[in-house]
Amino acid sequence: MADQALHAQPASTDGQTRRDFLLYATTAVGVVGTGLALWPFVHSMNPAADTLALSTTNVDLGAIQPGQSVTVVWRGKPVFVRRRTPDEIATATKDDGAELRDPSKDADRVKKPEWLIVVGVCTHLGCVPLGQKPADPKGEFGGWFCPCHGSHYDTSGRIRKGPAPANLPVPPYEFTSDTTIRIG
């Protein structure tokens, strides 16, 4: 009887200690295993390498003449880069006081008055407006015209007529030199 009492107490404490250790070890292995199993799924939600490569676009402005527009691709979207003439700048500035659906001053949409950079996607249904080529119709306000539903944009990319609810968006950009910009 004395032997049973002597062995009962340590066996119970020793069994409890082993049980706690096994519980903690099993939980830790389960958590680490679950994390390792989920990592490929979480990692698959990151942008692809080709998408990351398009996150910025550098544009050489040196070859663009006054009145000329070029289209570059940034994040899979067309971006219109227009070197505006003094007349286009004066018209855009004068139109700051016009009744606009999406009010925005020309000075708030450009960093240098000569250069207008906007995402070339109509804000109505996502079409690409005309007005980049010299022969393209530029709409009633001399900017861009979306023939799908008749949206007219001015020389600052602001919506002036038609169903589009907002101006052409200005992407984030910066001048890295006098003749180069980085979009994105």
What does this structure look like?
The chain is an alpha+beta fold and 184 residues long. The chain folds into two domains: 46 residues; 133 residues, Rieske Iron-sulfur Protein, CATH 2.102.10.10. It is built from four helices and nine strands; from the N terminus they run H-H-E-E-E-H-H-E-E-E-E-E-E. The strands form three sheets. The chain has a three-stranded antiparallel beta sheet, with no helix packed on it. The longest helix is centred in the N-terminal third of the chain and has 42 residues. It starts with a helix and ends with a strand. The model has no long low-confidence stretch (mean pLDDT 85).
What's a quick, concise take on this entry?
The protein is an alpha+beta fold and 184 residues long. It is 33% helix and 23% strand.
